[in-house]
Amino acid sequence: MRRYETIIIIDPDSSEEERKPVLDKISDLIQQENGFFVLFDEWGNRKLAYEIKKKNRGHYVRVDYCGSGHLVNEMERFFKIDDRLLKYMTILLDESPNLDQIKEELADAKAREELANAKAREAKIRAQEERIAKESEADIKSTPPEASEPEAETDSAKDDETDDQTAEAETPSNEEQKEE
User: Fold this and answer.
1) Residue 104 and residue 31: Cα distance in Å, rounded?
2) Mean pLDDT per segment of 10 residues, for the chain of length 180 residues?
3) Are 7 and 89 in contact (CB under 8 A)?
4) Contact at 8 Å (CB) between 65 and 18?
């Protein structure tokens, strides 16, 4: 088993729904031929170096996989038949790849990606919290001080009234003292 990389250029006028069956067919071919699929790396639409089938742009996709020479022949046969594909090129990356090592690299890359996503989410949450804190500080500073002072006076006046009522309830009235 060898490790290959195939670059394909898909018609840029094809939509995502039209490109998906091409990529699915490639994935199916790899599985049917007992290959090991590593990854699809979509580069997106790019300008071509020269015009191909009257197109100046193309949607680039890099396919990394392990398989036999028969798998490469089948994939290239499919590429020749499908009109959505403008161009393709297959390169041998490794004569005898270590599948266990490749699987470990994929797992490590996935873990790094998840860690990076988690850090990005945390940073986004912190930024939102800081923005909310700054907005609340700005709201507090923008409130006129005169509006907050009368509320303080009325609160203290209410406190005085409740203190008076409590004091009256605790001190016995003249009638209660006479009865004793």
Assistant:
1) 20
2) 93 91 92 89 93 93 92 93 93 85 82 88 90 80 60 53 54 53
3) yes
4) no
